[in-house]
Amino acid sequence: MSKLWAGRADGAINEAAEAFNASITFDKRLYREDIIGSVSHAAMLAKQGIISLEEEKLLISGLSAILADIESGDLVIDEKAEDIHTFVEETLVARIGAVGKKLHTARSRNDQVALDMKMYARNAADDLKKQVLSLAAALTDKAETYKATVMSGYTHLQRAQPITFGQHLMAYVFMLLRDADRLADARKRLNVSPIGAAALAGTTYDTDRAYEALLLSFDGVTENSLDSVSDRDYVVELLSAISLLMVHLSRLSEELVLWSSFEFKYVEISDDFTTGSSIMPQKKNPDMAELARGKTGRVFGDLMAMLTVLKGLPLAYNKDMQEDKECFFDAVDTAKACLGVFIPMIKSLKANEENMLAAAKGGYINATDLADYLAKKGLPFREAYKIVGEIVRDALHGKKTLEEIALEDYKKYSPLFKEDLYEAISVLNCVNKRTSYGGTAVSSVERQIALAREKMQTE
Fold this sequence. Notes:
Layout lengths: L14 H7 L2 H4 L3 H17 L5 H20 L11 H13 L12 H37 L4 E6 L2 E7 H26 L1 E2 L15 H7 L4 E2 L3 H6 L2 H27 L7 E2 L18 H24 L13 H24 L2 E2 L1 H9 L5 H10 L4 H18 L8 H5 L9 H4 L2 H6 L9 H17 L1
Parallel strand pairs: 3-4
Antiparallel strand pairs: 1-2, 5-6
Helix pairs in contact: 3-4, 3-8, 4-5, 6-7, 6-12, 6-19, 7-10, 7-19, 10-11, 10-12, 11-12, 14-15
């Protein structure tokens, strides 16, 4: 195929340089955006009288046929073309003749590719947000099932206080809801059209950028032509949002790996999302969670790559910016794949409620409640804290839980201890007394579930 830039030069370059320069192998996925953008551009040109209505009809008919043929498989994208814009335009000219060459009037590949990327990024943000909300819904349903299931809450990976499994899962729900908000917010900011900025300085033609933007469902147009073609903030912003989403998936992955281990046995991951060992027949490996945890690093790399590409670029367009596509496509594909596995994996997840409760009872995680018991009897909390610390130390030496210590032994530490202390340190009561807003009591978890579902319905 000939080069769109052939003229001053003959378009022939070194074979290695040509392969190095070409982007068709990865930007071919922008074919739909490129064609839809061109259809709108033809409509704008006709509206402004820059081309005739007959030429508009011929251009749009030819472009629509190319799109249909690509999607049906009747037309295969030629990877010998320099990029997707070249392929579409050359195919159009081959089909409808010289009129096809008028399509590029009042635009450049610089604003054309910026348009394609914004349209693709907009759709990617919508798709990812939908998946994120589906995962949030799956976790919320699971939290509803286990809203009263007592487990150990951890800090420093040490048993800390009793909570419910539902409460723990809802923490991830609210992380994901923030992820959905970030994707929506980035989408809102990127949804202004760059087309019409041309190469960098605008155009001498009497174009209507607002009309073209309206046809493409943009909220408006970019205000500065240099910024229009050199801006990739939206790519960085979405990569950042995706990276943070992957952080949350990775944290959940880590917990699923721990919880499903023989040492914890808190949860059972469905066989559909685990693998075995080639040598150890007893193994059930949480490979999907581990892979999601590992793929987080690759998405971080995509973000850092894009930041590094942009950090030293002068205005306006530079060929370096071609590097935006592979890292963005990779991050989007990776996040979609991880979410696609996580949604059904969470739906099929089962909790081992007995193991969770047994671990909660054996970890002295009701020690804070014992200190609160003394404080509510009038003892300053710091003194209560010290006394309970001594009790826990002695209980550890005696291999007893706090519930197993006799009342007469408790009275040796403080005369404030009465029979009602056992009710105060019951792990079930410890959970359900925490009714503060956002706390772990069943009633509080129910409020969180209702709030999350309400938010998901409005998204």
